[in-house]
Amino acid sequence: MRSREVHLVRRPQGGAPHPDDVTIETVEVEAGAGQVLVRNTVMSVEPYMRGRMSEGASYVEPYQLGAPMEGHATGVVEWSDVPDVPVGSVVVHQFGWREYAALTPDELEVVDVDGLKPTDHLGALGQTGLTAWVGMNVIARVQPGDTVFVSSAAGGVGAIAGQLAKVKGCTTIGSCGSPDKVEAVVKSFGFDTAFDYHDGRVRDLLRDAVERVGRPGLDVYFDNVGAEHLEAAIREMNEQGRIALCGAIAVYNATEPVPGPRNLLLMIWRRLRMEGFIVGDHDDVRPQFLAEMTELVRRGEVTSPETYVGHGIDEAFSGFLTLLEGRAVVGKALVSLQD
Ligand SMILES: NC(=O)c1ccc[n+]([C@@H]2O[C@H](COP(=O)([O-])OP(=O)(O)OC[C@H]3O[C@@H](n4cnc5c(N)ncnc54)[C@H](OP(=O)(O)O)[C@@H]3O)[C@@H](O)[C@H]2O)c1
Q1: Enoyl reductase (ER) domain: from which residue to which, for each copy (predicted)?
Q2: Is residue 295 situated within a structural domain?
Q3: pLDDT digits (tens, 9 = 90+) for 277-297
Q4: Do 275 and 198 belong together in one domain?
């Protein structure tokens, strides 16, 4: 089968990725004994892929030069030599950035689409949802009545994290990058209040938000952004507060070391706990996560927001750049690979 795929041919030069960092190659994909041929339908683009484009220390291996990039995708089995994975099965796997993939059963998961969209398995029921669930439940140990602040609250992880806190009976505050996103965060994801971080200093905007919800401070901060947001959140934490460090998108393109929060002394005075986590370390809670989240999504208590940032493999990389710039992307950023 002729398939087109996105290859990394150059590591980003001096910060932001550029379209010249990749090429689209046409290859022949054949599935053989013990394999299935999957036609990819939708692929996920995510900030961590920026890290994998560069060489050097990260929590995942860098992408290889001259080879296809990788990432989560949904697909449909078009040919099968695996009895448990018949033709027509809807699957999720890690071989995105290409139109077709020949896979063995251990490289894919057949997913339940009864009352669910296949793309829910990239969003609320996929790594994105698991990241939000682990950050809230395992790392921040969120409790009913907590006041919870989530940054990048209109993003894939942030929108789910905020909804999970709300389901748990928390007061929720979100930050994001445009008036439209503020509206989505409050109206679609049920946050009690939200602010656009471009409207002033984050510390002032967050202080105003805490006052608006009538709470003394924050019990939990779910950090997707780092930098100024993190320092502002530490300043607003209540005693015994918990900070889950999930991501730091504000610094991913930095070419120089970035100064840390200047107010870490407050961590001592207020007995705060700040913990970073990597979702891949928490596969043990996946069954519990899936059981809970599937019900929440089926009952409509958690929505799995998504924005298509590209259509077709030709638009996959520009869609990825759109995600990194944040323009008009609400929820999980996806690229459709269907004709
Ligand atoms: N620890 C883990 O295991 C794990 C797993 C998955 C993801 N993550 C991390 O979790 C975070 C959220 O992931 P996601 O996939 O849901 O991505 P996301 O939040 O949808 O990321 C894209 C959004 O980040 C925001 N952004 C970009 N530059 C920013 C800046 N300088 N300051 C503030 N916001 C900025 C933009 O929204 P605005 O318009 O609102 O600025 C953009 O739409 C990322 O940092 C990601 O790396 C961690």
Answers
A1: 88-335
A2: no
A3: 999 999 999 999 999 999 999
A4: yes
